[in-house]
Automatic annotation (TrEMBL):
It is found in: Endomembrane system. Transmembrane segments: none annotated. The keyword Transport applies. Keywords: Cell inner membrane, Cell membrane, Membrane, Transport. This is Putative nitrate transport protein. It comes from Methylorubrum populi (strain ATCC BAA-705 / NCIMB 13946 / BJ001) (Methylobacterium populi). One of its GO terms (cellular component) is endomembrane system. Its main location: membrane.
Length: 338
């Protein structure tokens, strides 16, 4: 059976790329054609309109698409999660210099960020910060980060959508002053001498739900073999012994605009955060391990709570129940049992 699977070029697409390229899908009777999508909005629409059979997708965007909050409403099912964490907040060198935080602790960095944001807003030059999509954990982490600094993101900052592969270009051109994005794009910006990684997403919201495997709710007779293939590929990706091979695969196949050594550092959670070569190590920076694969309805409820908090949804109603129903641990269990 042949299927087309969409992905956005990020390190956390590793399980679906490995499933397609390393024979895990073929072992389950599937031939996967990978489709590199330029933005989350494009991927969302192509999945909803049937141009894609499955997708590596932002968890909040899958929920928003299924609830009719973003793009064409789509009947979706989420039989597997792909990862936890993987994001970071990166700011331009000029902004970091102006911030001069007392330490690298998230609270100190957020307080310095808030101070500069307020000052620049008073001068008529509000900070412009990029996020990958309104319905993303990146947007929610930015708001939580702002909260650590004691201010409301909406009051002093312009939040704009920039697709992950374009974040570094936007920073280089001065269109944005910083961004929250997934690996490897924060590290690519640092390697290019354009910015400083200010805070890791896993320090702002530990074990933050991230990408999921999204399928049509009806007619996906390939669901069980696909979940098995991506699960097995995910186990392979999470094994440190395979890190170098996986890094080369992602550099060659996923068009991540970075070399294998840089990707390997993001997989290992050992990040170079500035032009001086300062290293920050956090093994939880990007989690691809087996414990992340089961789709947990509690994660959907947490994401809906973030949507309510930033006024994408009104409080009350049945949105949390509907979102939780999209997450299908029963399908995942049936696939693994098979």
């Amino acid at each position: 059976m042949r299927i087309t699977l969409g992905y956005v070029p990020l390190t956390d697409a590793a399980p679906v790329i490995a499933a397609a390229e390393l024979g895990f899908a073929r072992a389950e009777g599937l031939e996967i054609t990978l489709s590199r999508e330029p933005s989350w909005a494009t991927l969302r629409d192509r999945l909803a309109l049937g141009h894609l059979d499955a997708a590596h997708m932002l968890g909040p965007l899958a929920i928003a698409s299924a609830l009719g909050l973003s793009g064409p409403q789509a009947g979706l099912s989420i039989p597997m999660a792909l990862n936890l964490n993987g994001n970071a907040v990166t700011v331009s060198n000029a902004l970091w210099s102006a911030m001069a935080p007392a330490s690298d602790r998230p609270g100190d960095v957020a307080a310095a960020f808030a101070r500069v944001a307020r000052a620049w807003a008073e001068e008529g030059r509000p900070l412009t910060i990029g996020t990958v999509h309104p319905f993303s954990s990146h947007s929610y982490q930015l708001r939580l980060f702002a909260g650590l600094g004691g201010f409301d993101l909406d009051t002093v900052i312009r939040l704009v959508v920039v697709p992950p592969p374009d974040t570094v270009k936007a920073l280089r051109r001065g269109i944005i002053d910083g961004f929250c994005v997934g690996a490897p794009w924060n590290s690519v910006a640092v390697a290019a001498g354009l910015g400083r990684i200010a805070a890791l997403g896993c320090e702002i919201a530990p074990d933050c739900p991230e990408k999921v495997l999204a399928l049509p709710a009806e007619g996906a007779d390939f669901a069980l073999p696909l979940v098995r293939a991506v699960h097995q590929a995910g186990l392979w990706c999470a094994d440190p012994a395979n890190r170098d091979a996986l890094s080369r695969l992602l550099a060659e196949r996923a068009e991540l605009d970075s070399d294998a050594a840089l990707i390997a550092r993001t997989l290992g959670g050992a990040l170079i955060v500035d032009a001086d070569g300062t290293e920050r190590v956090n093994p939880a920076y990007l989690r691809l391990d087996a414990a992340t694969h089961r789709p947990d309805p509690a994660q959907a409820r947490w994401l809906v709570a973030q949507m309510v908090s930033c006024r994408q949804l009104p409080p009350g109603g049945d949105a949390a129940d509907r979102a939780a129903a999209l997450y299908r641990p029963d399908i995942f269990a049936a696939a693994i049992a098979g």
